[in-house]
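Problem statement: downstream parser choked on a complex file, so we are re-checking the raw output for the nicotinamide-adenine-dinucleotide run. The parser issue turned out to be on our end (a line-ending mismatch), but while we're here, posting the original submission so the record is complete.
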Amino acid sequence: MTSFAVYNPATEAVIAEVPNGTAADATAAVDAAAKAFPDWATTAPRARAEVLRKAYELIIAGTENLAALITAENGKSEADARAEVAYSAEFFRWFSEEAVRTDGEYGSSPAGGTRTIVTHQPVGIAALVTPWNFPAAMATRKIAPALAAGCTVVLKPASETPLTALAIADLLTAAGVPEGVVNVVTTDSPAEVVTTWLADDRVRKLSFTGSTRVGHTLLRQSADRVLNTSMELGGNAPFIVTADADLDSAVAGAMIAKFRNGGQACTAANRFFVHADVLDDFVARFGAAIDKLEVAPLISAKAVTGVSGLVDDAVADGARITNTGPVPADGWYYPATLLVDVEPGFRIVREEIFGPVAPIISWRDEQEMLAQVNDSEYGLAAYVYAGRLQDALRIAESIEAGMVGVNRGVVSDPAAPFGGFKQSGLGREGARDGLREFQETQFFSVDWT
Ligand SMILES: NC(=O)c1ccc[n+]([C@@H]2O[C@H](COP(=O)([O-])OP(=O)(O)OC[C@H]3O[C@@H](n4cnc5c(N)ncnc54)[C@H](O)[C@@H]3O)[C@@H](O)[C@H]2O)c1
Ligand SMILES: N[C@@H](CC=O)C(=O)O
Protein backbone atom coordinates (compact mmCIF):
# COMPACT_ATOMS: atom_id res chain seq x y z
CA MET A 1 0.00 0.00 0.00
CA THR A 2 1.20 3.53 -0.69
CA SER A 3 1.38 6.16 2.05
CA PHE A 4 0.82 9.88 2.49
CA ALA A 5 2.50 12.47 4.70
CA VAL A 6 1.16 14.09 7.86
CA TYR A 7 2.50 17.58 8.66
CA ASN A 8 3.06 19.60 11.81
CA PRO A 9 1.40 22.98 11.12
CA ALA A 10 3.70 24.78 13.57
CA THR A 11 6.90 23.69 11.80
CA GLU A 12 5.62 22.60 8.34
CA ALA A 13 7.68 19.40 8.87
CA VAL A 14 6.51 15.91 7.92
CA ILE A 15 5.88 14.01 11.17
CA ALA A 16 4.57 10.68 9.86
CA GLU A 17 3.55 8.64 6.84
CA VAL A 18 0.29 6.70 7.06
CA PRO A 19 -1.34 4.13 4.72
CA ASN A 20 -3.15 5.65 1.79
CA GLY A 21 -6.35 3.63 1.73
CA THR A 22 -8.16 2.82 -1.51
CA ALA A 23 -11.60 1.56 -2.49
CA ALA A 24 -10.38 -2.00 -1.84
CA ASP A 25 -9.36 -1.03 1.71
CA ALA A 26 -12.72 0.65 2.21
CA THR A 27 -14.50 -2.58 1.23
CA ALA A 28 -12.21 -4.67 3.44
CA ALA A 29 -13.15 -2.44 6.36
CA VAL A 30 -16.85 -3.04 5.70
CA ASP A 31 -16.16 -6.80 5.46
CA ALA A 32 -14.63 -6.67 8.95
CA ALA A 33 -17.47 -4.53 10.32
CA ALA A 34 -20.06 -6.90 8.82
CA LYS A 35 -18.38 -9.92 10.37
CA ALA A 36 -18.27 -8.29 13.80
CA PHE A 37 -21.79 -6.83 13.72
CA PRO A 38 -23.96 -9.83 14.78
CA ASP A 39 -21.97 -10.47 17.97
CA TRP A 40 -21.57 -6.81 18.92
CA ALA A 41 -25.23 -6.00 18.28
CA THR A 42 -26.28 -8.82 20.60
CA THR A 43 -23.67 -8.23 23.30
CA ALA A 44 -25.44 -7.34 26.54
CA PRO A 45 -25.81 -3.56 26.96
CA ARG A 46 -24.00 -3.72 30.29
CA ALA A 47 -21.01 -5.46 28.67
CA ARG A 48 -20.90 -2.84 25.91
CA ALA A 49 -21.18 -0.12 28.55
CA GLU A 50 -18.22 -1.50 30.48
CA VAL A 51 -16.03 -1.48 27.39
CA LEU A 52 -17.00 2.16 26.76
CA ARG A 53 -16.30 3.08 30.36
CA LYS A 54 -12.87 1.44 30.08
CA ALA A 55 -12.24 3.46 26.91
CA TYR A 56 -13.03 6.64 28.89
CA GLU A 57 -10.55 5.65 31.59
CA LEU A 58 -7.79 4.76 29.14
CA ILE A 59 -8.18 8.02 27.22
CA ILE A 60 -7.99 10.03 30.44
CA ALA A 61 -4.97 8.04 31.61
CA GLY A 62 -3.28 8.66 28.25
CA THR A 63 -4.11 12.37 28.15
CA GLU A 64 -0.55 13.61 27.73
CA ASN A 65 0.25 11.25 24.84
CA LEU A 66 -2.97 11.89 22.99
CA ALA A 67 -2.77 15.65 23.54
CA ALA A 68 0.80 15.70 22.21
CA LEU A 69 -0.34 13.85 19.09
CA ILE A 70 -3.23 16.28 18.55
CA THR A 71 -0.92 19.27 18.91
CA ALA A 72 1.64 17.73 16.57
CA GLU A 73 -0.73 17.05 13.67
CA ASN A 74 -3.42 19.71 14.21
CA GLY A 75 -1.27 22.50 15.62
CA LYS A 76 -3.61 23.52 18.45
CA SER A 77 -2.11 24.68 21.73
CA GLU A 78 -1.27 22.13 24.41
CA ALA A 79 -4.03 23.55 26.63
CA ASP A 80 -6.59 23.24 23.84
CA ALA A 81 -5.35 19.72 23.06
CA ARG A 82 -5.71 18.60 26.69
CA ALA A 83 -9.18 20.12 26.80
CA GLU A 84 -10.06 18.22 23.65
CA VAL A 85 -8.85 14.93 25.15
CA ALA A 86 -11.06 15.46 28.22
CA TYR A 87 -14.01 16.38 25.97
CA SER A 88 -13.47 13.39 23.68
CA ALA A 89 -13.19 10.95 26.62
CA GLU A 90 -16.43 12.31 28.05
CA PHE A 91 -18.40 10.92 25.09
CA PHE A 92 -17.35 7.41 26.15
CA ARG A 93 -18.36 8.07 29.75
CA TRP A 94 -21.71 9.60 28.78
CA PHE A 95 -22.59 6.86 26.29
CA SER A 96 -21.41 4.09 28.64
CA GLU A 97 -24.14 5.41 30.93
CA GLU A 98 -26.69 5.67 28.09
CA ALA A 99 -25.90 2.21 26.68
CA VAL A 100 -27.84 0.50 29.47
CA ARG A 101 -30.94 2.73 29.22
CA THR A 102 -32.68 0.55 26.68
CA ASP A 103 -35.97 2.35 26.74
CA GLY A 104 -39.07 1.57 24.68
CA GLU A 105 -42.82 2.17 24.80
CA TYR A 106 -45.92 0.11 25.33
CA GLY A 107 -49.31 1.34 24.19
CA SER A 108 -52.67 0.31 22.88
CA SER A 109 -54.50 1.23 19.70
CA PRO A 110 -57.37 3.69 20.06
CA ALA A 111 -59.90 0.92 19.30
CA GLY A 112 -58.23 -1.44 21.76
CA GLY A 113 -57.66 -4.23 19.23
CA THR A 114 -53.87 -4.17 19.35
CA ARG A 115 -51.03 -3.52 21.71
CA THR A 116 -48.01 -1.60 20.37
CA ILE A 117 -44.49 -2.29 21.61
CA VAL A 118 -41.86 0.21 20.44
CA THR A 119 -38.20 -0.72 20.58
CA HIS A 120 -34.90 0.53 19.13
CA GLN A 121 -32.50 -1.58 17.09
CA PRO A 122 -28.90 -0.78 16.10
CA VAL A 123 -29.01 0.79 12.64
CA GLY A 124 -26.17 -1.47 11.41
CA ILE A 125 -22.76 -0.67 9.99
CA ALA A 126 -22.10 3.06 10.25
CA ALA A 127 -19.69 5.04 8.08
CA LEU A 128 -18.14 7.88 10.07
CA VAL A 129 -16.34 10.76 8.35
CA THR A 130 -14.61 13.37 10.50
CA PRO A 131 -12.78 16.72 10.12
CA TRP A 132 -9.32 17.80 11.26
CA ASN A 133 -10.26 20.58 13.68
CA PHE A 134 -11.17 18.31 16.63
CA PRO A 135 -9.48 15.08 15.51
CA ALA A 136 -10.27 13.21 18.74
CA ALA A 137 -13.64 14.62 19.81
CA MET A 138 -15.34 14.53 16.42
CA ALA A 139 -14.44 10.84 16.17
CA THR A 140 -15.45 9.85 19.72
CA ARG A 141 -18.71 11.85 19.46
CA LYS A 142 -19.66 9.32 16.76
CA ILE A 143 -17.89 6.12 17.83
CA ALA A 144 -19.20 6.16 21.42
CA PRO A 145 -22.94 6.36 20.59
CA ALA A 146 -22.56 3.99 17.64
CA LEU A 147 -20.96 1.34 19.85
CA ALA A 148 -23.43 1.99 22.66
CA ALA A 149 -26.26 1.34 20.20
CA GLY A 150 -24.68 -1.94 19.05
CA CYS A 151 -23.38 -0.73 15.69
CA THR A 152 -20.01 -1.50 14.16
CA VAL A 153 -18.21 1.31 12.35
CA VAL A 154 -15.85 2.25 9.57
CA LEU A 155 -14.11 5.57 10.19
CA LYS A 156 -12.34 7.88 7.76
CA PRO A 157 -10.52 10.65 9.61
CA ALA A 158 -9.40 13.82 7.82
CA SER A 159 -6.17 13.31 5.88
CA GLU A 160 -4.57 16.21 7.83
CA THR A 161 -5.07 14.42 11.20
CA PRO A 162 -5.14 10.62 10.86
CA LEU A 163 -2.75 9.88 13.75
CA THR A 164 -5.19 10.77 16.52
CA ALA A 165 -7.87 8.48 15.07
CA LEU A 166 -5.39 5.61 14.80
CA ALA A 167 -4.33 6.17 18.42
CA ILE A 168 -7.97 6.15 19.56
CA ALA A 169 -8.56 2.89 17.68
CA ASP A 170 -5.61 1.36 19.57
CA LEU A 171 -7.03 2.57 22.90
CA LEU A 172 -10.38 1.02 22.02
CA THR A 173 -8.73 -2.31 21.33
CA ALA A 174 -6.99 -2.05 24.70
CA ALA A 175 -10.38 -1.27 26.29
CA GLY A 176 -11.78 -4.54 24.96
CA VAL A 177 -13.54 -3.49 21.76
CA PRO A 178 -13.61 -6.70 19.69
CA GLU A 179 -11.82 -6.97 16.35
CA GLY A 180 -13.83 -5.56 13.45
CA VAL A 181 -16.08 -3.32 15.58
CA VAL A 182 -14.04 -0.16 14.84
CA ASN A 183 -12.18 0.01 11.52
CA VAL A 184 -10.15 3.07 10.54
CA VAL A 185 -9.22 3.75 6.93
CA THR A 186 -6.71 6.57 6.44
CA THR A 187 -6.50 8.08 2.98
CA ASP A 188 -5.79 11.24 1.08
CA SER A 189 -8.46 10.23 -1.47
CA PRO A 190 -11.54 10.81 0.69
CA ALA A 191 -14.05 10.66 -2.16
CA GLU A 192 -12.82 7.22 -3.27
CA VAL A 193 -13.18 5.68 0.19
CA VAL A 194 -16.42 7.38 1.21
CA THR A 195 -18.12 6.81 -2.17
CA THR A 196 -17.29 3.13 -1.84
CA TRP A 197 -18.98 3.02 1.54
CA LEU A 198 -22.04 4.95 0.42
CA ALA A 199 -22.52 2.51 -2.46
CA ASP A 200 -22.17 -0.59 -0.26
CA ASP A 201 -25.58 -2.05 0.67
CA ARG A 202 -24.17 -3.32 3.96
CA VAL A 203 -23.50 0.24 5.17
CA ARG A 204 -26.73 1.56 6.73
CA LYS A 205 -25.67 4.90 8.14
CA LEU A 206 -23.53 7.91 7.28
CA SER A 207 -22.50 10.20 10.12
CA PHE A 208 -20.55 13.09 8.66
CA THR A 209 -18.90 16.11 10.28
CA GLY A 210 -17.32 18.69 8.02
CA SER A 211 -18.08 21.54 5.67
CA THR A 212 -21.52 22.26 4.27
CA ARG A 213 -19.98 22.05 0.78
CA VAL A 214 -18.88 18.42 1.22
CA GLY A 215 -22.10 17.74 3.14
CA HIS A 216 -24.11 18.68 0.03
CA THR A 217 -22.12 16.17 -2.04
CA LEU A 218 -22.52 13.35 0.46
CA LEU A 219 -26.24 14.00 0.90
CA ARG A 220 -26.69 13.77 -2.87
CA GLN A 221 -24.77 10.49 -2.95
CA SER A 222 -26.71 9.16 0.04
CA ALA A 223 -29.99 9.86 -1.74
CA ASP A 224 -29.33 7.00 -4.18
CA ARG A 225 -29.81 4.48 -1.35
CA VAL A 226 -32.00 6.65 0.89
CA LEU A 227 -29.22 6.25 3.42
CA ASN A 228 -29.83 7.25 7.03
CA THR A 229 -27.65 10.35 7.49
CA SER A 230 -26.52 12.62 10.30
CA MET A 231 -24.80 15.78 9.13
CA GLU A 232 -22.81 18.13 11.38
CA LEU A 233 -21.85 20.96 9.06
CA GLY A 234 -20.51 24.49 8.98
CA GLY A 235 -21.46 27.45 11.14
CA ASN A 236 -21.48 31.24 11.21
CA ALA A 237 -22.13 31.94 14.89
CA PRO A 238 -23.30 35.42 15.92
CA PHE A 239 -22.11 36.78 19.28
CA ILE A 240 -24.56 39.39 20.59
CA VAL A 241 -23.81 41.92 23.32
CA THR A 242 -26.65 44.07 24.67
CA ALA A 243 -26.28 47.54 26.20
CA ASP A 244 -26.61 46.25 29.78
CA ALA A 245 -24.38 43.16 29.44
CA ASP A 246 -21.58 42.61 31.95
CA LEU A 247 -18.68 43.58 29.68
CA ASP A 248 -15.96 41.78 31.64
CA SER A 249 -17.95 38.60 31.31
CA ALA A 250 -18.80 39.30 27.64
CA VAL A 251 -15.13 39.85 26.74
CA ALA A 252 -14.09 36.68 28.62
CA GLY A 253 -16.81 34.77 26.73
CA ALA A 254 -15.79 36.37 23.43
CA MET A 255 -12.18 35.25 23.91
CA ILE A 256 -13.33 31.65 24.31
CA ALA A 257 -16.06 31.69 21.67
CA LYS A 258 -13.73 33.28 19.12
CA PHE A 259 -10.28 31.95 19.92
CA ARG A 260 -10.83 28.43 21.26
CA ASN A 261 -8.89 26.27 18.82
CA GLY A 262 -7.61 29.42 17.10
CA GLY A 263 -11.06 30.12 15.70
CA GLN A 264 -11.07 26.81 13.85
CA ALA A 265 -14.30 25.55 15.38
CA CYS A 266 -17.73 25.12 13.84
CA THR A 267 -19.06 26.88 16.94
CA ALA A 268 -16.58 29.79 16.70
CA ALA A 269 -18.08 33.25 17.03
CA ASN A 270 -17.89 34.51 13.46
CA ARG A 271 -19.58 37.93 13.72
CA PHE A 272 -20.01 40.16 16.77
CA PHE A 273 -23.14 42.29 17.14
CA VAL A 274 -22.36 44.84 19.87
CA HIS A 275 -24.86 47.46 21.05
CA ALA A 276 -23.73 50.95 19.99
CA ASP A 277 -23.87 52.26 23.59
CA VAL A 278 -21.11 49.86 24.70
CA LEU A 279 -19.24 49.47 21.41
CA ASP A 280 -16.19 51.59 22.27
CA ASP A 281 -15.83 50.06 25.71
CA PHE A 282 -16.22 46.50 24.40
CA VAL A 283 -13.73 47.09 21.55
CA ALA A 284 -11.18 48.62 23.94
CA ARG A 285 -11.37 45.67 26.36
CA PHE A 286 -11.55 42.96 23.68
CA GLY A 287 -8.72 44.66 21.74
CA ALA A 288 -6.49 44.79 24.83
CA ALA A 289 -6.94 41.04 25.32
CA ILE A 290 -6.26 40.38 21.62
CA ASP A 291 -3.03 42.43 21.68
CA LYS A 292 -1.59 39.88 24.14
CA LEU A 293 -3.00 36.73 22.56
CA GLU A 294 -0.57 34.30 20.94
CA VAL A 295 -2.60 31.97 18.74
CA ALA A 296 -1.67 28.47 17.58
CA PRO A 297 -1.06 27.92 13.86
CA LEU A 298 -3.85 27.30 11.37
CA ILE A 299 -4.08 23.87 9.80
CA SER A 300 -2.43 24.73 6.46
CA ALA A 301 -0.91 27.41 4.27
CA LYS A 302 -4.19 27.38 2.30
CA ALA A 303 -6.12 28.18 5.47
CA VAL A 304 -3.86 31.19 6.14
CA THR A 305 -4.45 32.44 2.59
CA GLY A 306 -8.21 32.01 3.01
CA VAL A 307 -8.40 33.99 6.28
CA SER A 308 -6.10 36.71 5.01
CA GLY A 309 -8.23 37.06 1.85
CA LEU A 310 -11.36 37.59 3.96
CA VAL A 311 -9.62 40.30 6.02
CA ASP A 312 -8.21 42.01 2.91
CA ASP A 313 -11.67 42.11 1.33
CA ALA A 314 -13.20 43.51 4.53
CA VAL A 315 -10.55 46.25 4.71
CA ALA A 316 -11.07 47.05 1.02
CA ASP A 317 -14.79 47.41 1.81
CA GLY A 318 -14.12 49.89 4.64
CA ALA A 319 -13.36 47.83 7.77
CA ARG A 320 -10.51 48.87 10.10
CA ILE A 321 -8.06 46.60 11.90
CA THR A 322 -7.77 47.95 15.45
CA ASN A 323 -5.76 45.21 17.15
CA THR A 324 -3.57 42.23 16.26
CA GLY A 325 -1.77 39.70 18.44
CA PRO A 326 1.80 38.41 18.09
CA VAL A 327 2.74 35.49 15.77
CA PRO A 328 6.00 33.60 15.12
CA ALA A 329 7.79 34.17 11.82
CA ASP A 330 7.52 30.55 10.59
CA GLY A 331 4.62 28.11 10.46
CA TRP A 332 1.07 28.54 9.22
CA TYR A 333 0.07 31.41 11.52
CA TYR A 334 -2.44 34.23 11.24
CA PRO A 335 -2.58 36.74 14.11
CA ALA A 336 -5.57 37.27 16.36
CA THR A 337 -7.25 40.28 14.72
CA LEU A 338 -10.03 42.70 15.66
CA LEU A 339 -11.96 44.41 12.86
CA VAL A 340 -14.39 47.30 13.33
CA ASP A 341 -16.63 49.29 10.96
CA VAL A 342 -17.87 45.99 9.55
CA GLU A 343 -21.21 45.80 7.70
CA PRO A 344 -23.52 42.75 7.56
CA GLY A 345 -23.06 42.31 3.80
CA PHE A 346 -19.27 41.87 3.95
CA ARG A 347 -17.92 38.49 2.81
CA ILE A 348 -16.21 38.01 6.22
CA VAL A 349 -19.63 38.18 7.86
CA ARG A 350 -21.35 35.83 5.42
CA GLU A 351 -18.66 33.11 5.22
CA GLU A 352 -17.20 30.86 7.90
CA ILE A 353 -13.85 32.51 8.80
CA PHE A 354 -12.33 29.46 10.52
CA GLY A 355 -9.53 31.61 11.88
CA PRO A 356 -8.72 34.09 14.68
CA VAL A 357 -10.47 37.17 13.29
CA ALA A 358 -13.28 38.99 15.11
CA PRO A 359 -15.42 41.34 12.96
CA ILE A 360 -17.58 43.77 14.96
CA ILE A 361 -20.94 45.13 13.80
CA SER A 362 -22.70 47.84 15.80
CA TRP A 363 -26.50 47.70 16.45
CA ARG A 364 -29.27 49.75 18.07
CA ASP A 365 -32.56 48.21 17.00
CA GLU A 366 -33.09 44.66 18.32
CA GLN A 367 -35.39 43.52 15.50
CA GLU A 368 -33.06 44.86 12.83
CA MET A 369 -30.09 43.18 14.51
CA LEU A 370 -31.97 39.84 14.74
CA ALA A 371 -32.88 40.04 11.05
CA GLN A 372 -29.17 40.44 10.26
CA VAL A 373 -28.26 37.59 12.62
CA ASN A 374 -30.75 35.24 10.92
CA ASP A 375 -29.80 36.32 7.40
CA SER A 376 -27.47 33.33 6.95
CA GLU A 377 -27.78 29.86 5.46
CA TYR A 378 -26.09 28.57 8.63
CA GLY A 379 -27.70 28.01 12.01
CA LEU A 380 -25.32 26.11 14.26
CA ALA A 381 -24.25 28.05 17.37
CA ALA A 382 -24.92 31.55 18.73
CA TYR A 383 -24.03 33.50 21.86
CA VAL A 384 -25.96 36.18 23.76
CA TYR A 385 -24.66 38.38 26.57
CA ALA A 386 -27.35 40.45 28.30
CA GLY A 387 -27.84 41.87 31.79
CA ARG A 388 -31.37 40.50 32.24
CA LEU A 389 -31.97 36.79 31.74
CA GLN A 390 -35.38 37.41 30.19
CA ASP A 391 -33.79 39.65 27.53
CA ALA A 392 -31.11 37.05 26.85
CA LEU A 393 -33.70 34.28 26.49
CA ARG A 394 -36.01 36.42 24.32
CA ILE A 395 -33.11 37.09 21.96
CA ALA A 396 -31.92 33.45 22.14
CA GLU A 397 -35.38 32.17 21.18
CA SER A 398 -35.39 34.48 18.14
CA ILE A 399 -32.12 33.14 16.76
CA GLU A 400 -32.29 30.41 14.14
CA ALA A 401 -29.55 28.22 15.63
CA GLY A 402 -29.44 24.81 17.27
CA MET A 403 -27.30 25.94 20.21
CA VAL A 404 -27.23 29.26 22.03
CA GLY A 405 -24.73 30.14 24.75
CA VAL A 406 -26.53 32.42 27.22
CA ASN A 407 -23.99 34.56 29.07
CA ARG A 408 -21.35 31.93 28.29
CA GLY A 409 -18.89 31.42 25.44
CA VAL A 410 -19.03 27.63 25.11
CA VAL A 411 -21.97 25.42 24.17
CA SER A 412 -20.22 22.05 23.74
CA ASP A 413 -21.41 19.43 26.22
CA PRO A 414 -21.60 15.66 25.65
CA ALA A 415 -24.85 15.59 27.62
CA ALA A 416 -26.55 18.19 25.37
CA PRO A 417 -27.86 17.73 21.81
CA PHE A 418 -25.23 19.27 19.52
CA GLY A 419 -26.38 20.24 16.03
CA GLY A 420 -27.69 22.91 13.74
CA PHE A 421 -30.65 24.46 11.96
CA LYS A 422 -30.71 25.19 8.23
CA GLN A 423 -27.57 24.24 6.29
CA SER A 424 -25.61 23.60 9.47
CA GLY A 425 -26.86 20.06 9.53
CA LEU A 426 -29.32 17.29 10.17
CA GLY A 427 -29.63 15.37 13.42
CA ARG A 428 -27.92 15.79 16.77
CA GLU A 429 -24.84 14.37 18.48
CA GLY A 430 -24.41 13.90 22.21
CA ALA A 431 -27.21 13.45 24.74
CA ARG A 432 -29.82 10.72 24.22
CA ASP A 433 -30.44 12.18 20.76
CA GLY A 434 -26.92 11.10 19.76
CA LEU A 435 -27.73 7.48 20.55
CA ARG A 436 -30.97 7.63 18.56
CA GLU A 437 -28.99 8.64 15.46
CA PHE A 438 -27.54 5.10 15.49
CA GLN A 439 -30.83 3.32 16.10
CA GLU A 440 -33.83 2.35 14.00
CA THR A 441 -37.21 2.56 15.69
CA GLN A 442 -39.20 -0.63 15.36
CA PHE A 443 -42.63 -1.47 16.66
CA PHE A 444 -44.55 -4.68 17.12
CA SER A 445 -48.27 -4.57 16.59
CA VAL A 446 -49.65 -7.33 18.81
CA ASP A 447 -53.10 -8.80 18.30
CA TRP A 448 -55.20 -8.21 21.43
CA THR A 449 -58.51 -9.69 20.37
N1 LIG B 1 -21.19 20.91 12.98
C1 LIG B 1 -20.15 20.32 13.55
O1 LIG B 1 -20.28 19.61 14.53
C2 LIG B 1 -18.77 20.52 13.00
C3 LIG B 1 -17.68 20.12 13.77
C4 LIG B 1 -16.40 20.30 13.27
C5 LIG B 1 -16.22 20.88 12.03
N2 LIG B 1 -17.30 21.26 11.31
C6 LIG B 1 -17.11 21.90 10.01
O2 LIG B 1 -16.08 21.25 9.28
C7 LIG B 1 -15.41 22.16 8.45
C8 LIG B 1 -13.92 22.06 8.66
O3 LIG B 1 -13.51 20.76 8.53
P1 LIG B 1 -12.86 20.19 7.19
O4 LIG B 1 -12.10 21.25 6.48
O5 LIG B 1 -12.15 18.93 7.55
O6 LIG B 1 -14.16 19.86 6.35
P2 LIG B 1 -14.26 19.06 4.97
O7 LIG B 1 -15.69 19.05 4.61
O8 LIG B 1 -13.29 19.54 3.97
O9 LIG B 1 -13.79 17.58 5.35
C9 LIG B 1 -14.48 16.80 6.32
C10 LIG B 1 -14.22 15.34 6.04
O10 LIG B 1 -14.76 15.01 4.76
C11 LIG B 1 -13.75 14.43 3.96
N3 LIG B 1 -14.02 14.77 2.56
C12 LIG B 1 -13.61 15.87 1.89
N4 LIG B 1 -14.08 15.84 0.62
C13 LIG B 1 -14.79 14.70 0.49
C14 LIG B 1 -15.51 14.10 -0.57
N5 LIG B 1 -15.60 14.67 -1.77
N6 LIG B 1 -16.12 12.92 -0.35
C15 LIG B 1 -16.05 12.34 0.87
N7 LIG B 1 -15.38 12.85 1.92
C16 LIG B 1 -14.75 14.02 1.74
C17 LIG B 1 -12.44 14.99 4.49
O11 LIG B 1 -11.35 14.18 4.13
C18 LIG B 1 -12.73 14.97 5.98
O12 LIG B 1 -12.57 13.68 6.50
C19 LIG B 1 -15.96 23.52 8.83
O13 LIG B 1 -16.93 23.91 7.89
C20 LIG B 1 -16.58 23.27 10.19
O14 LIG B 1 -17.60 24.17 10.54
C21 LIG B 1 -18.56 21.09 11.75
N1 LIG C 1 -16.55 23.22 18.45
C1 LIG C 1 -17.26 22.00 18.28
C2 LIG C 1 -16.74 21.19 17.20
C3 LIG C 1 -16.76 21.98 15.94
O1 LIG C 1 -15.75 22.43 15.49
C4 LIG C 1 -17.33 21.24 19.57
O2 LIG C 1 -16.96 21.81 20.58
O3 LIG C 1 -17.81 20.12 19.58
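For whoever reads this later: Residues 5 and 440 are 39 Å apart (CA to CA).
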